[in-house]
Amino acid sequence: MSALRRTAFAVAPESAGERLDAWLAHQAGAPTRSQIKAAADDDRIEIAGKTVRASYRLRGGESVDLLEHEPNPAAAVLVGEAIALDILHEDATLLAVDKPAGMVVHPAAGNRSGTLVHALLHRDPSIAWPGQPERAGIVHRLDRDTSGVILVAKTVRAHEALSRQFRERTIHKTYLALVHGVVLQGGRIDLPIGRHPTERKRMSVSGRPARAAVSEYTPVERLGAFTLLEVRPQTGRTHQIRVHLAASGLPIVGDRVYGGRKRSTFGRQALHAAAIEFEHPEGGRRLRVESPLAADIADLLVTLRRSSQDIAGGGKVG
Fold first, then answer.
1. How far apart are CA 124 and CA 146, in angstroms?
2. How many domains does the chain have?
3. Is residue 284 part of a domain?
4. In terms of C-beta distances under 8 Å and separation of at least 24 residues, what long-range contacts does 150-153 make, across chains too?
5. What CATH number did the domain enclosing 63 receive?
6. Is residue 57 domain-shared with residue 96, that is, in the same domain?
7. Which of these three, 22, 47, 69, is where a domain ends?
8. N or C: fewer beta carbons within 10 Å in the chain?
9. How far is it, in rounded angstroms, from Cα 314 to Cα 297?
10. Helix (H) and strand (E) counts for the chain?
11. pLDDT over threshold 50, residue 217
């Protein structure tokens, strides 16, 4: 990861009440509004030493610190790699990729090759993002070991439109998660999420500062001591589903970070991004893209079905 450069922007008293992102986008030397939103989501905008959201209302007279990545020579000459991709949807504006488990989305320290971005740049070099080739139009993220559908914008206009839908929460995502525990009915988890107080690479419902996070879930199938859930995140916090389910006593099978004492021989968290629904950036038609359940999770379900045939209450829910 490249080093961060700090730039200060002074807020005039008459700007009190303005949204931070709208105000900052009009300041000399500031990045675009979508880049400002990305910086806020990455905790790279501070006021008085504390991170703030893009929607923060200015008070007037304060100083806004923007932390930007220094130009990365390696990223500037990022070379695509011939990595096969499973394309679920493609048109002139965007594409949807079925990301396999184990693939990292963005290049970073420790992941200088083999990422989704490398594969995208080989497939279409023109998709390189202005000034940030390592982004390559990526609109949102999936963890390395989460499989499923991920959107990629081919144009700046498409990126802006999709990013706006994420901000306004009009994009609907559906995940399938296999969890430890028997779940008899659906529920809603409304627990703010922030950085873990002592382990900075982890997120926590006890973290501070915390941001609102809501996930809804419905049981799909009971498999002995396990349940397959359909999960619909209403917000998009880092590790949200994994953190929420673990905090609710339903850790995801194979999750080595949030699984606690629940151990599994499954090689990764059993979490799959099954579908995403959004308005197409051109024309506004509603589009739903689905990803077939990853083979390793599907195989695990078959094994659990066999082993739970004699357990009372096993089988489909409903």
1. 24
2. 3
3. no
4. 150/96, 150/97, 150/99, 150/105, 150/116, 150/273, 151/94, 151/95, 151/96, 151/276, 151/278, 151/289, 152/94, 152/95, 152/96, 152/97, 152/120, 152/127, 153/93, 153/94, 153/281
5. 3.10.290.10
6. no
7. 69
8. C
9. 18
10. 7, 17
11. yes
* Residue with token string 């007037």: 60
312, part of any domain: yes
Residues 6 or more apart from 235 whose CB is under 8 A from it?
169, 211, 212, 213, 214, 215
pLDDT one-digit tens code per residue, 106-159: 887 777 889 999 999 999 887 766 656 667 889 899 999 999 999 999 988 898
pTM of the model: 0.77
Length of the chain in terms of residues written? 318
Residue 285 is assigned to a structural domain of this protein: no
Pair 222, 313: CB distance under 8 Å = yes
Average confidence (pLDDT) over 87-114? 91
Residue with tokens 């599994």: 264
Active-site positions read: 143
| Residue pLDDT, tens place only, 234-276 | 999 999 999 999 999 999 999 999 998 888 889 999 999 999 9
Q: What is the mean pLDDT of the chain?
A: 89
Which residue range(s) make up the domain with 146? 73-166
Given CA atoms 118, 120, 124, 126 in this order, what sign does their dihedral have? negative
- Does a structural domain hold residue 265? yes
